[in-house]
Structures are given as structure tokens and as C-alpha cells.
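Entry 14. Ran structure prediction on the chain below.
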Amino acid sequence: MAQWIVNYLPTWGIIRITGIAAYLMLFASVFLGIAQGMPAAKGKPKALMYKWHTKTTWLAFGIGLVHALTLYIDYYSPFSWGELLIPFTASGHPVGSGLGTLAFYGLIVVLLSSDLRNKLGRKWWFMIHLLSYPVFIGLLFHGLMTGTDSDHVIVRLMYVFTGLCIIGMTVLRAMMRERKGPQITIGSNHTPPRPSADGMPLRELTGRNG
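Output, C-alpha cells:
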């Protein structure tokens, strides 16, 4: 019965849909993570972005897990457990598949670090959380190199658009944080003229007398 279900399950379609969905969830997670860390993000909007940042991260993990398991049971081009778990050992697209495996492992580390944030401390948590960037990049190239739909112009535009969005948000966040540095005081070296006893500036008074 189970084998019959597997044989008639549209595994190829599930692999394609879950692959793109997992990538989009990770994009939303990274985007919201950067946005909620902006200096201007405060109060309820910041809390809401953080909430959905966490949810989309877990959705990316769950959908990615379904994607990997469907690759294992696929009857057309099945992956072995070794090919799924050991990076760069797949018979087809070893580099692209390996990047996907590494991205999945990195996502697990990021999720675990978030759960252990209080024990790790902010410094170590933040350093581990920066893995979100290589995880996103790895998943982007995994989709481009192994996705059967990656040759489609709309799918390629999606990858380009999402990649540029993350780059733009990262640069914008860095620029906004730099603006919070020391303020520039215009005319700080200018000393106003000291008034004389009759209220006239000494500079002007000296000029008139001399």
C-alpha cells in the first residue's frame, strides 16, 4: 500500500514546489531579520517582524525537510541517504546538491542558536546567526544549479530580485547604523566675538579706532 502511494505520488512536482517554497521562506526570513534590526524599527512593528522572521525560518526548515524526503522516495531520480546527508556526493549535480545540503545544515545551526540564545550570550549568538547569509547564498545557487525550472525567465528573475533585495537591505542597514556615529557640529572652531563694556564687539570697536 505504501509503495503504491509512492509510485503514484507526484514526487517531481512536489520536489519543484517545495524547493522554491523553501527558498522563498528563507528569503522572507532573512529579509525580515535585517528589517527588524534597523535602527528605525521599534515597538510593535519590530515585534511583528521578529515574530514572522521566526515563523518563516521554521517554515523554510519544514518545507526543506519535505523537499529532501521527497528526493529520497522519488521513483524517477531517487537520492540515497548518503547523497542527501553527505555534501557533494550526489551522482547528479554534485556541487549544487552539496550546497543545498550545507545550507540545510547551516539552517539547523541557526535555529538551534536561536533556541540557546540566553545560554550562548548575545555576542556568540550574533556570530552564529550571521550564518543566515551563507545559508541564503547557498540555497540560491542550489536552486539555480539544480532546479529544473531555473532556466525559466520568471524563475531566474525571482532569484535575481531576491538576491538584490538582500544585498540592498544589508547595505541600507549598514549605512543607517553608520549615521548613528558622532555628530558633526558645523562651525565648532568659530568663537563668537566677546562684546565690550558698551555692548559693541571688541573686533568691530578695534577696527573703528584703528
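The two ends are 111 Å apart (CA to CA). Will compare against last week's run tomorrow.
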